[in-house]
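Student:
Attend to each token:
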Amino acid sequence: MKNPRRIYFCHHCKKITTNVESVLIVEDFAMKSFCSDSCIVQFHAPLITHYEKEEKEIRKKHNLTRESCFIFKENPHYIQKTLENPVEAWEDINELGEKLYVLFARHEDKDFPFTMIVVTYLYQKVPSFVFFQTATNSEIIMNEYRRGTKIEDLKGFLQKDPGEAGEEETKSGNEVQVELPQDEVESLERKKSALLAELLTRRTDADIPFENFYLYDPYIPSTIETPDEIFSYEDDEGEELFVYLKGHSQAGVSFYFIVICTKLEMNQKENSHEEVLFPILSFPTLDGKLTKLYCIGEKISGNLKN
């Protein structure tokens, strides 16, 4: 008798699949599976709302409704640093055995110190889904989030995904140091200025602030290596440019990341040439309409995720 086909279903949209590799899981030992990042966010939306309301109540109780460090609470750079290198962690387990983790890390931005607090799931010792984050300099607020059991062994508590570590080794092994002629550098700078000027006329004030673009630079490698879509088109000078687009999610917020590149031919040895992909301009956006403006020319691969 043949083994029956095993099926899996999304706990939010109830979509059924027989491909276990397409299933997304965000908790250890939990039987909840999902078909997409969007379903994960929507399924956990009530918990996200709960933590947001709870923070307002806590701060109102202690008369700390505003702190100057609030400007950092949505900053993806400091959220990621807290997830990677917490200085304090607590495991909070409810009566059903469901586990949440509260991570603390101290940061300093231009001589402005603060503590970031992040509430997250863990999957295989890796933070997998962030419910809530805030920034504070109040020990009273920190004590409100010290829940459950304190993790004493921080070194053994979190570890990088083994596949991720191998990926980093591979990337560093494939890096190429490139020295460009001065005229090439000037040409690329002109292109960057023109593309940036065009972007600034297209974007809206409600989008991610221009001054925060540098915080999203870590998304450049993954956007180029595993893009959702790639387009190629000719610019006004007749040179071919490539647009790499990818949807990302950070701290429960979805955004698009776009990298505009050109290919440069590098002389390696005599009679030997190699083409190198060179990023000219990269930027994040929450605006789907703006993203569509960069889906131009010939589509080389992929379908952009919602």
Summary: The radius of gyration is 23 Å. The chain has a mean pLDDT of 81. Residues 182-202 form the longest helix (21 residues).
